[in-house]
Amino acid sequence: MKNLAMGLCLSVLAGCSLFTSEDNLNKPSELLPQGVRFIESKSSEAGTASIPYSKYQLDNGLTVILSPDHSDPLVHVDVTYHVGSAREKIGRSGFAHFFEHMMFQGSEHVGDQQHFKIVTEAGGTLNGTTNRDRTNYFETVPSNQLEKMLWLESDRMGFLVNAVSQRKFEIQRDTVKNERGQNYDNRPYGLVYEKIGEALYPKNHPYSWQTIGYVQDLDRVDVNDLKAFFLRWYGPNNAVLTIGGDIDEAKTLAWVNKYFGSIPKGPEVDIAPKQPVTLSQDRFITLEDRIRQPMVMMAFPTQFRGDQSEASVNALASILGDGKNSILYQKLVKTQKAIDAGAFQDCAELSCTLYVYAMGDSGKKGNLTPIYQDLLQALNGVKVNGVKQEQLDAIIGQAEAGTIYALQSVSGKVSQLASNQTFYGQPDRLQTDLEELRAVTPKSVEDAYKQFVGEKHKVVLSVVPKTQTQLAVKKANYTPPTRDLPSYPKITDDQLEIREPKDNFDRSVVPPVSDAVSGTMPPLYRFDLENGIKVLGTQTSETPTVAIKISFPAGNRYVPKGKEGLADLTAQMLNEGTKLNSSEALQQKLDQLGSSIHFSSGGYQSSLVITSLTKNLEKTLSIADE
């Protein structure tokens, strides 16, 4: 990567200090709106990664987190409900995801499809997601649109049920079924996690079905079943409202109390018990799919989110399968025994799983039996060779940098606050997570291997092309038990305990937009180096990071006819190491520094992008020069 000076344009975005220290905020209760209670606040700490916030609770149980950030005239609003597919009943799967769809179909004071229209016309973006343990809805908008967003979110929290019609129900049920067909049933490898879940968990375990649910379950329910699910789980006492960005805390609290304070509390919600699993034997299962490259995936049960073993297992997964220096890449991919291989821990609230996988080539090279044996031998390398400190240094370096990079957007900060409050009751866990990671040692990773992988039982899934079961690791020795489909009594309209909010204002009136806001671009500086490089840069102090983009007039437009693809190939080759360092050596150095170097090619130019923590910039540039 010598002679970067050949680039025509160098763009620099630099940051200085991380945060400034502020006095801790004591919020006197007499200054708060009636019905709002101050819980705690946390200010910025100089020299540490943290997200300042203040936490409140309304009388109806709604937890409110405010995190001012005046760097941009934007706000991000997140409403997280502590309910996902794990709260569904057997034979009633898919409800949580179904309601993610229904929440965008209009509420009592917001017309059908108007939620999208209002947010996008305000210049904002929005979405919602559902997983096994929570459902969230969020918007990013200009800060003068905040009151309108609170009106929208509160209306679907407090006034949704009466707007859910049979017609909307039928339309969205068809939409969900179509989504399942596209993303699961008819997608290559789309049923992998469903099949593993059915084999890994007992049939009554809430993780034994996927968030999308089963079509036969959706076909057996009606609109009142869905309304009852909403009334059970979507109360304010089972929700966290998190607002970050360019906000006035006092005004925001007043709006929150106005729009959410009158919504009645829902039924009490108990904390779900942890449910990690153990297996009495290895379970081999086979999935015939419309694919060309067979794949073997092993699933080892671990513990649950927040367990003391979590950080060590995550480190083990990184050592096994993350990047070119990983064991699986070196033993399987680089030796061309597999075309892809990796490992990761999927950690959720009730239970976690360590996944290890390898994908074979098409044809005879796709026989999964030898690939499986190579996988086992690679895993055994942890036992034989142990774990080295430099491996952990690279993991910790990337994690520390990732923590800082995640603070570069208001949506990223709000999402972390909301998730951590939902699952831990501790909105800002940046330092906690880093301390847990730094406490990981070679011995703790080796202990995690012994506890969860070495000589432990697992689920082994072979994904093979249709009618080619001879490529499977072994003949299937496990069949999941037949799913129970209990008969639930029909829910009548008068059995729905609808909780009507009582307001002292007219909710049908759309809140006005506050004073206009405008973004302020930071000043730019320009100069030319002696070798002709044109430099364009700016400075920001939000995070201690630097981003450098070097552009070359060497895109696809300049490739000679008959040599199409040369620009892309060149960009890829620049990632494959130098005379001084192999690609693995470069990657290890960059990981330890929490930096990255990436080449890419487009139509008119090729680019080198460097990201680094400010303190490591000089070392990162030195690596790039090598």
Verbal overview:
The chain has 18 helices and 18 strands. The protein has helices at 95-102, 114-121, 146-158, 166-185, 192-200, 215-219, 223-233, 249-260, 310-321, 327-333, 368-385, 389-405, 410-424, 430-438, 442-452, 566-573, 583-593, 617-625, and strands spanning 9-15, 36-42, 53-58, 63-68, 74-81, 125-130, 135-142, 239-245, 283-289, 295-301, 340-347, 352-359, 459-465, 525-528, 534-540, 545-552, 596-601, 606-613. The strands form 3 sheets. Strands 2-3-4-8-5-7-6 form a 7-stranded mixed sheet, sandwiched between helices. It has a 6-stranded mixed sheet with strand order 14-15-1-16-18-17, with helices on both faces. Helix 1 (95-102) packs across helix 4 (166-185). The protein is globular and about 75 Å long. It starts with 8 loop residues before the first strand and ends with a helix.
Structure in a nutshell:
Helices cover 32% and strands 20% of the residues. α10 (327-333) packs antiparallel against α11 (368-385). By secondary structure, the chain is of the alpha+beta class.
Label this structure with key terms:
single chain; 626 residues; alpha+beta; seven-stranded mixed β-sheet; six-stranded mixed β-sheet; 18 helices; globular
Rg from Cα: 27 Å
Low-confidence stretches: 1-9, 14-25
Q: What is the β-strand count?
A: 18
Helical fraction: 25-40%
Quickly give the structural class: alpha+beta
Silhouette: globular
